[in-house]
Amino acid sequence: MKNMKKILAAVLAIAVLCTTAIAFAGCGGSDTDKSSATDSTTESKADDTAANGELHMATNAFFEPYEYYEGDKIVGIDAEIADAICQKLGYKLVIDDMDFDSIITAVQSGKADFGMAGMTVTEERKQAIDFTDTYTNAIQVIIVKEGEDKVKGADDLKTATIGVQMGTTGDIYVSDFEADGAKIERFNKGADAVLALSQGKVDAVVIDNQPAKAFVAQNEGLAILEEPFENEEYAICVAKGSDLTEKINGALKELKEDGTIDSIIKKYIKED
Ligand code: GLN
Predict the structure, then answer these.
(1) Which protein residue has the closest C-alpha to ligand 1 atom 8?
(2) Residues 94, 38: contact at Cβ < 8 Å?
(3) Is there an atom of ligand 1 within 6 Å of 177 CB?
(4) Residue range 50-81, pLDDT digits in tens
(5) Which of 93, 104, 150, 203 has its CA 20 to 30 A from that of 10?
């Protein structure tokens, strides 16, 4: 305990010193870091973190193949693209795992510099945060239990119990069906919605196509309906007005042009 107090005091002292140092000359970091750290006109997290050379990415790491754990490491398409972007911009990537529903708030409040989580661009989200250019497409699909015929297409969802991941576009789309009599069960993780389906607690799960494939591969007795539900595009979200949008877009453009994005996606998604 005594040691803890000492460590805490030391950390506090360093923090105070650094804050003072930033006020006068910038605290550590490279030349480019300093210029943004001392730029008092913008106050986004990106400018703060520039001082220590890190960019924090908010994600929900239960969304294979975009972000998921391999041991205690978060891997996947988003994790690799984010890393490539950070390398181009000269930052170290730090991934913060949280509920999908908390990502936009984390970015808005500056707790994270950007959010990348197979996140679909929607008009409603654009009111709260800015999106970069898109980097890939996705489709919302319906997963059902093999052999059950309650839900054979999107129309049947109107009278079904549907499992979704809270705050996702799947949740938003099926919420429209509540007026028709659909019952929506909202889960923190897609995997929990899929478990509820396996246990017969919901009739269908609406979720993005690639994670759906991963869930069906990992859980016996489930199938994806052929009828696609909604087409979407994924992008990275940043705080409103942040200069990170332009920086990330620059890096994304280069990574698209030199084939990096394609090869990362191909590494994780094998065409069937
Ligand atoms: N693409 C969906 C959305 O943006 C789901 C994302 C996710 O669950 N990670 O809402």
Answers:
(1) 168
(2) no
(3) no
(4) 547 999 999 999 999 999 999 999 999 999 99
(5) 93
